[in-house]
Design brief:
Number of strands: 18
Order of helices and strands: EHEEEEEEEEHEHHEEEHEHEHEHHHHHEE
Radius of gyration: 25 Å
Number of domains: 2
Strand content: 15-25%
Length: 367
């Protein structure tokens, strides 16, 4: 995760809230024939929010409104994206909701949206429908309507997300359970982990490979070439959470692949490994080095080291492979303790350059 800037952070709005607000403006314009400059909707967090429309126009039997997504101070890939809603009269009764250009289409099981449908998640769907129903009722209209949500830059934005791996093709997802974006929210990251594991499980995976980032994932893919892409999940700093979700969703085996910095913390039983909340414990690394046969001079050097990666380089240069095997085993034991056993866990350690250092495997606390 990125470093959180100092000071009070500004909240933003989800793509779901923006799509709902754009729909509110477009439908109102379609009914009244008057373009709307703003749109007020009720959010799932039980408060109203007013959005300024970027554009709104009525053409015959269709009205289109757009809103620029403001994610506040959150480093969101969709910040600044144009969210468009086109609403037209339909001969069919009720409300038809679909995705247009830049909104992804679901192609894999395991997501909260059925295969073949636009990647508009359940809460945004409910928000859009409820808002539209309220407006139709307000004006006493019983005609059917069709709503199409589009994001012109969606396909390009989606390249910065996990959508492709999750089987969401052609654009972004319309998301949000609260309507607001809390800057640097751990909830959003955890939600993406749950979704990734669900897709893996729905794809038939029983062996999951969890990594702390892009570099470690590249190592993992080389190590497990036989596994499908759905089996690889970036857990970031949320080791304990990902392990528990893996067991909860029925994974039989979990492979942890990472580097010295974060995994030296996991080896101690630390399951949230952000640098701010869990600094590297060099005394612990020195103890492991001592049990691996390091002499007093090397042990003292380890205690004075600046980074865990530096410690790894010291031990690798002297050929202490048992040091990495022991660290890996400690990671496995800590993982099994975290989930109360019941799965097979293996751990592999790599350098920042992608060089293999060592591994270990444990099943229910017995290696």
């Amino acid at each position: 995760m990125q470093e959180v800037p100092k000071g009070k952070l500004r909240e933003g709005y989800t793509t779901g809230a923006c799509a709902t607000a754009a729909t509110c403006a477009a439908l109102t314009a379609l009914i009244t024939g008057e373009p709307q400059t703003e749109s007020t909707i009720f959010l799932p967090v039980k408060r109203f929010a007013t959005f300024q429309t970027e554009s709104c126009e009525v053409t015959g039997n269709m009205a289109t409104a757009s809103i620029i997504k403001d994610a506040g101070d959150d480093p969101d890939a969709t910040h600044g994206a144009l969210i468009i809603s086109s609403v037209s009269w339909s001969e069919e009764p009720g409300i038809i909701l679909d995705g247009g250009v830049g909104v992804g289409r679901v192609t894999k099981e395991g997501l909260p949206v059925p295969v073949g449908e636009a990647a508009i998640n359940p809460v945004p769907r409910k928000m859009i429908r409820k808002t539209a129903e309220g407006i139709l009722s307000e004006f006493g209209i019983e005609k059917g309507i069709k709503i199409v949500i589009s994001v012109p830059a969606g396909e390009e934005i989606a390249k910065k997300t996990l959508n492709g791996r999750l089987g969401i093709i052609g654009g972004i997802s319309i998301l949000g359970t609260r309507g607001i974006v809390v800057p640097f929210s751990t909830a959003a990251y955890k939600a993406s982990i749950i979704q990734a594991i669900s897709v893996a499980r729905a794809s038939g995976c029983e062996h999951l490979v969890i990594t702390t980032g892009g570099r470690s994932e590249k190592c993992a893919i080389k190590q497990f070439p036989e596994l499908p892409e759905e089996a690889f999940v970036e857990m970031g700093d949320f080791v304990g959470f990902t392990l528990k979700q893996s067991k909860k969703q029925g994974m039989k085996r979990v492979s942890m692949v990472g580097m010295m910095g974060k995994f030296s913390k996991v080896a101690m039983g630390t399951m949230m490994v952000h640098s701010k909340s869990a600094p590297v414990n060099f005394e612990f690394l020195a103890e492991v080095a001592g049990s691996a046969g390091a002499d007093a001079v090397l042990i003292e050097e380890i205690k004075q080291a600046n980074t865990a990666s530096q410690v790894g380089d010291m031990m690798a240069a002297r050929g202490y492979t048992s040091f990495f095997e022991q660290l890996s085993r400690n990671c496995c034991l800590a993982a099994l303790k975290e989930v109360d056993g019941g799965i097979m866990v293996d751990t592999s350690l790599y350098t920042m350059k992608g060089e293999f250092l060592g591994k270990a495997e444990v099943m229910d606390g017995i290696g």
